[in-house]
Amino acid sequence: MLSNIEIQNIIPHRYPFLLIDKIEEVEPGKRAVAIKNVSINEPFFQGHFPGNPIMPGVLIVEAMAQTACVAGLMLEENKGKLGVFTGIESMKFRRQVVPGDVLRLEAEFLVFKMGMGKVKVTATVDGQVAAQGEIKFAMIDQDKK
């Protein structure tokens, strides 16, 4: 298990864009399971949507990507790099995520070689699938833009 502080020692994301609170399970370069406690205090709820707060789907995808990023950046050859999206495939949204939900984020690497990868990701709330699909990424040096 990794705490929020330990996560920040691995990935560069910070508030308000660090979207995972803890890592419950991790196998570097293979898989990870994270938790996001969804709070009404999240800044995006101010506008999405007043009176009917729903976590934006793109932020659920980002939280799943951050989960995968932790597992990928724990490998020695990737330390200090940055994980960036190269694609999103077959993403489906099945359930709204609202304040008070505990989002369980799972990432399983399907392919990961030469700094490129494809990860199967799933986000659930109380055992119900909120979102699932596949994301593609590249590990790049942080000074490259």
Automatic annotation (TrEMBL):
<dbReference type="InterPro" id="IPR013114">
    <property type="entry name" value="FabA_FabZ"/>
</dbReference>
<feature type="active site">
    <location>
        <position position="48"/>
    </location>
</feature>
<keyword id="KW-0443">Lipid metabolism</keyword>
<dbReference type="GO" id="GO:0016020">
    <property type="term" value="C:membrane"/>
</dbReference>
<dbReference type="GO" id="GO:0009245">
    <property type="term" value="P:lipid A biosynthetic process"/>
</dbReference>
<dbReference type="GO" id="GO:0006633">
    <property type="term" value="P:fatty acid biosynthetic process"/>
</dbReference>
<dbReference type="InterPro" id="IPR010084">
    <property type="entry name" value="FabZ"/>
</dbReference>
<keyword id="KW-0444">Lipid biosynthesis</keyword>
<keyword id="KW-0456">Lyase</keyword>
<keyword id="KW-0441">Lipid A biosynthesis</keyword>
<comment type="similarity">
    <text>Belongs to the thioester dehydratase family. FabZ subfamily.</text>
</comment>
<dbReference type="GO" id="GO:0005737">
    <property type="term" value="C:cytoplasm"/>
</dbReference>
<dbReference type="Pfam" id="PF07977">
    <property type="entry name" value="FabA"/>
</dbReference>
<keyword id="KW-0963">Cytoplasm</keyword>
<comment type="function">
    <text>Involved in unsaturated fatty acids biosynthesis. Catalyzes the dehydration of short chain beta-hydroxyacyl-ACPs and long chain saturated and unsaturated beta-hydroxyacyl-ACPs.</text>
</comment>
<dbReference type="InterPro" id="IPR029069">
    <property type="entry name" value="HotDog_dom_sf"/>
</dbReference>
<dbReference type="GO" id="GO:0019171">
    <property type="term" value="F:(3R)-hydroxyacyl-[acyl-carrier-protein] dehydratase activity"/>
</dbReference>
<protein>
    <recommendedName>
        <fullName>3-hydroxyacyl-[acyl-carrier-protein] dehydratase FabZ</fullName>
        <ecNumber>4.2.1.59</ecNumber>
    </recommendedName>
</protein>
